[in-house]
Design goal:
The protein is of the alpha+beta class. It folds into 2 domains: 188 residues, Ribosomal Protein S5, domain 2; 142 residues, GHMP kinase, C-terminal domain (Alpha-Beta Plaits), CATH 3.30.70.890. It has 10 helices and 11 strands. Strands 1, 2, 3, 4, 5, 6 and 11 form a 7-stranded mixed β-sheet that branches. The chain has a 4-stranded antiparallel β-sheet with strand order 8-9-7-10. Helix 2 links the parallel strand 3 and strand 4. Helix 2 crosses helix 3 and helix 7 runs antiparallel to helix 8. The longest helix has 20 residues. The chain starts with a helix and ends with a strand.
Length: 342
Amino acid sequence: MSAAGLATDRPARPLATEHVRVHAPGRLHLGFLDPGASLGRAFGSLGVAVGGPETVVELGRGESDSFETCAGGDGALQRAREHLAALRRATGCDAPVRLRLRSVLPAHAGLGSGTQLALAVGRAFCATFGVDLDGRHLAGLLHRGVRSGAGIASFEQGGLSVDGGPRADGSPAPLLARIALPPAWRVLLVLDPRMRGLSGAAEKEALAGLAPLPRAAAADVCHQVLMRVLPGAAGAEFAPFAAGVSRIQEVLGAHFAPAQGGCAFASEPAGRLLRWVAQDTTAGIGQSSWGPAAFAFLASEAQARDVLQRARAAGVVDPALAVLVVPARNHGAWTTVARAGG
């Protein structure tokens, strides 16, 4: 669908609303299937939506444009305004709006903040002006999902997702599988606010400087996804799921380590904690994208809180780390509409 087509073929249908509020989840990027296209198609990725931190966007009609953000959200607000401008150009809906960011995911932390913000602004805009665009079209319009479809799938449906890599024309990747994770499972989410992961030009340079992932390694990753991670999730079999996630991270961590100072974890304190967790209990550990966000999948809330308590007692939790116990989020972004007088 072209931008010009949006402007001429799909006129806006204004809604009498005060504001639309969109809650977009954080997502963990568990790894690329074949970043060097050694098996014939580039990238492909595995991701999962998680509870806990989220981006919350409010948008409604106003007398004139007004913009407001939460503490620490100035950069996100600038990006949100750029997304709004792109949506206006594409649709011709240029009525004044009130845009407010109530909360934002930390930028460049490995939680998919850029894609979740773009899609949340896009969905709020579409609901306000009656424009019919799904997450895939919004992602293309707002230049998200260039390599991975995990963020789009997390926004749209939540759960565990596998995508097939971007299409030849550069449009977002097709979704190959989506599975709801068992509700008892938990994620030990480890954030290091002192650091930021690679992004933009620095990310492109890092990727260009890496040798291609060997074909055998890509095949190993794909086998782990198909025969351990997906069956484990679908059948509520935690041990093979965790083993598959850890093996994928082991292979890809070694591949991407040269771009992270030779380490599989961008945050050394996060890596130390998660290696301790994996030695102590059955867990699927790794780093989301370029980090510094890291994770451990555990079989239950009780197990997650117990291992965290023992890790603190053992002195392996750096005081600067933020460690959360969160569930997987088996639904996508949710939207509420407050109508005038309602």
